[in-house]
Every structure is written in C-alpha cells, then in structure tokens.
Amino acid sequence: MGNPFVHIELASTDVKKAKSFYGSLFDWKLEDMDMGNMTYTMVRVGEGTGGGMMQHPMKGEPSAWVPYVLVGNVTAATAKAKSLGAKIIRDVAEVPNAGSFSIIQDPTGAVLGLWQEKAK
User: Fold this and answer.
1) Mean pLDDT for the chain?
2) With contact defined as beta carbons under 8 Å apart, do 30 and 24 qualify?
3) Cα–Cα distance measured from residue 92 to residue 60, given in angstroms and rounded to the nearest whole number
4) Given a cut of 70, is residue 1 above it in pLDDT?
5) pLDDT single digits (tens) 58-106
C-alpha cells in the first residue's frame, strides 16, 4: 500500500494519567525519551504500528490521537494538502536524527500527520 500509516501519537493533557491507563489496558512498552525541551514517551507495540505520547502542545485543546502517514516529500505533500483545502495546523518541522513532519486538518475537520523519514 502506498503511503502507509507509520506512527500514531497521543497529544495528551495529562501524560502521566494516559501512560497509566494505556500501560494497564494494553501490553505496550512505554519508554520515556528526553527531547531537550520535553519528554516524549515512545509506544512500542511489538508487531504493528507504534507511536508516542507527549504533553499536548496547544493549551486548552483536548487530548487527541494523531495518525501519521509516510510521504516521500513532506514539504510537497503539505503544500498539496493545502491546495486541496487542508488547514495547516503545524507546518513542516524537523525531528533531529529522525525525519520531518507536518500536521494538517482535512476539509472535513479530521487531523492527520505527514511524516518523511530522514535520508540515510
């Protein structure tokens, strides 16, 4: 399948509570990573698409899961999404040593992340 889902991220208003809930509900391995200005919790699921959890970056917004889709060029895909009517929630940003992402909202209101892996 072209453009598979590759990561699912929880932007949470209470990461500690979310980790307790999901850690008890599922057999996920949760690993905290120091990202300098924040702690990011990797969600390792074994087989299948993993993800992460972080403190919601937008004050006042509710907790929400954001799925990420793999793209070959995140800048071009973000521009194409905008030309098709998407709202850009987070423009292209780099994750050091990993890749780049953006977050869009489609014309129906659904939120989706776009992910481009760092060239090896």
Assistant:
1) 94
2) no
3) 23
4) no
5) 899 999 999 999 999 999 999 999 999 999 999 999 998 899 999 999 9
11 near 56, Cβ under 8 Å? Answer: yes
d(Cα 68, Cα 4) in Å, to the nearest integer? 8
* Residue written as token pair 């919601």: 56
Alpha helices (H) along the chain = 15-25, 74-83
Structure-block tokens of residue 68: 């990420």
Phi-psi region of 77 (alpha: psi -120 to 50; beta: other; left: phi over 0): alpha
Query: Hey, what long-range contacts does 104-110 have (CB within 8 A, 24 or more apart)?
Result: 104/78, 106/81
The label of the residue with tokens 């014309």 reads 107
Q: Give, in degrees to the nearest 5, the angle at Cα 80 between 75 and 84.
A: 150
Q: Whose CA is closest to 95, among 55, 45, 11, 38?
A: 38
